[in-house]
Amino acid sequence: MNHNGNSAGTPQNPLLQGLFDSHCHLDDEAFAPDRIAVIQRAKNAGIDKILVPAYSPAFWPRLHHLCAQQSMLYPAYGVHPLYINACASNWLEQLRSLLDQAVAVGEIGLDLSESAPDYGSQVACLKMQLHLAQELNLPVILHARRTLEELSLILRDFSGLRGVVHSFSGSLVQAQRLVDRGFYLGLGGAFTHARALRLRATIQSLPLEWILVETDAPWQSAESYRGQRNEPAFLLETVHALAGLLQMAPQALAGQLTRNTLTLFQEKL
Predict the structure, then answer these.
(1) Is there a domain that residue 87 lies in?
(2) Cβ–Cβ under 8 Å, residues 25 and 230
(3) Per the annotation, does 3 bind a ligand?
(4) Which of 28, 58, 153, 227 sits most deeply, having the most CB atoms within 10 A of its CB?
């Protein structure tokens, strides 16, 4: 994702209160030059809480350090499917040791992009982390690039597990299957883009009580910020766009979205 690193101002949409960015990689190097300013802009935009999921064991220490310094940041730890080859032999033990300080296990999942590691190895790594989440009674944050069907089949074997499929872009049938298994659907800036007609139509039929909102910053900017580095303050734009799509009052929608997020992660917040 290209970004220009500019010092973006607070979005011009009317402010909403109590927003929760359910997926933001605020520990990423893209935020190194101005991370404190980014956090302040998020606060100015009405963001109260930000969930920061890990993606590589190499970055677990910096994520832990960042969240210990900022009370509005909540960590999740896991191994993203694109980073499974970066794991040391004792990675699972390291992960377990961090999870008593985490709100979730994530970002974990499956990825069928061209550069992705061996699929069988991805499945094995995912299942180990799902078992760990189940054992510790933690929700999971799932990545599913071109793998929603495969992921749904795997989740059938993990009764009682809960979580969110982040950056959801599937069909209504796929959404209902996930909801029936207790999984929330994370929506970000993707649905605001002009060509996302099918996704917008799907969103209009989703059960509202199973939707979370996210930025996935520094990536996946909304249409209004195309070409810019994404950041948590831009969640305000996404919530207003979703309110327009669902024909709801923005503050009423914001309240429901926050309740959804707190319901999923409440035991650790």
Answers:
(1) yes
(2) no
(3) no
(4) 28
180 annotated binding-site participant: no
Stretch (H or E) spanning 130: helix 119-136
Query: What backbone phi and psi angles, to 5 degrees, belong to 56?
Result: -140, 140
Does the residue 18 lie in any domain? Answer: no
Percent helix, percent strand, percent coil in the chain, to nearest 5: 50, 15, 35
Domains in the chain, number: 1
Q: What is the CATH number of the domain that holds 147?
A: 3.20.20.140
**Cα 223–Cα 225–Cα 228 angle in degrees, nearest 5:** 130
- Tens digits of per-residue pLDDT, 168-196? 999 999 999 999 999 999 999 999 999 99
Q: Does 240 show up as a binding residue in the annotation?
A: no
Q: Tell me the C-alpha distance between 186 and 189, whole Å.
A: 10
- How much is the pTM? 0.94
107 is in an annotated binding site: yes
User: Does residue 8 have a pLDDT over 80?
Assistant: no
Does residue 239 fall inside a structural domain?
A: yes
Q: In what order do the strands lie in the sheet with 73-77?
A: 19-21, 47-53, 73-77, 104-111, 140-145, 163-165, 183-187, 211-213
64 marked as part of a ligand binding site: no
Percent of the chain clearing pLDDT 90 (strictly above): 93
Q: Which residue has the tokens 């099918």?
A: 198
Q: Is 80 annotated as a binding residue?
A: no
Residue 9, pLDDT above cutoff 80: no
Q: By residue range, what is the domain housing residue 95?
A: 39-268
Of 253, 222, 187, residue with least CA distance to 17: 253
Whether 83 is covered by a domain: the verdict is yes
